[in-house]
Amino acid sequence: MGFLFISFSATAQDQGEKKVIQLSGIILNADSTDAVAGVNIYVPKKGRGTSSGRFGYFSMPVLEGDSVVFSFIGLKRQTFKVPENVEEDRVSLILTMEVDEIALAEIEVMPYPTEEEFKQAVIAMNVVDPMSISRANMSPEMLLRWAESMPASGNENFRYFQQGQMLQNQDLYGPRPLRILDPFAWSQFIRSIKRGDLKRRD
Q1: Contact present, 80 and 94 (Cβ < 8 Å)
Q2: Quick check: helix, strand or coil at residue 1?
């Protein structure tokens, strides 16, 4: 019992000698200056960890000599060892993480178990003439039905808006005049009849 107590006291004393250091920094992509958010930062087997924020910034307490692991899906895992005998109680670093490229073998996806069955299914397939489908879709009845259900285009909406604005401007200073009660319009109409403008031209 005395030997176990002495060894435990020595171990506790060794752990107590390690200084706590605040590790902080920014994580960036290796090919750009874009920050990497959501990187997992942890010390294995010690239950301490954090993750980088929106702008790639992180901060966590560590001990001297700890190995800090940085991992993110699609990027290569990196390890940073906290230096020992640090004069100050904080360490700052800028970490760049490279893309982890994984080459997978080519995979052929077939709808049938064997190539022979696939060929037989293709030969037995009943192919519909695409021109017949096009002719059915281009019939006058089908085009008229589509035209009735089609919403107005941008040009039509703009033209209707302009017409509404023009009518509002006309009604701004009084009621809109009726051309059928305009004496000047009647005089122009009578002159056009006398000149023969309304006669049918062969």
Answers
A1: no
A2: coil
**CA-closest candidate to residue 82, choices 70, 96, 68:** 68
What are 169-188's pLDDT values in tens digits?
A: 777 766 666 777 778 888 88
Inter-residue contact 13 to 5 (CB < 8 Å): no
d(CA 90, CA 83): 11
- Residues near 189 by Cβ (< 8 Å), separated by ≥ 6? none
| Residue 109: DSSP 8-state | -
Q: Helix, strand, coil proportions of the chain in percent (round to 5)?
A: 40, 25, 35
User: 46 and 66 in contact (C-beta within 8 Å)?
Assistant: yes
The answer to whether the predicted template modeling score (pTM) of the entire model surpasses 0.70 is: no
For 1-40, what is each residue's pLDDT tens digit? 443 334 434 444 445 578 899 999 999 988 877 899 999 9
**Could you tell me if 18 and 61 are in contact, meaning their C-beta atoms sit under 8 angstroms apart?**
no
CB of 73 closer than 8 Å to CB of 40: no
DSSP-assigned states of every residue in 4-15: HHHHHHHHHHHH
Nearest to 58 by CA among 70, 44, 45, 75: 70
Tokens of 195: 């000149």
The DSSP result for 72-106, as a single string, is: ETTEEEEEEEPPSS-SSSEEEEEEEE-B---PPPP
Cα distance from N-terminal residue to C-terminal residue, the chain: 130
DSSP 50: E
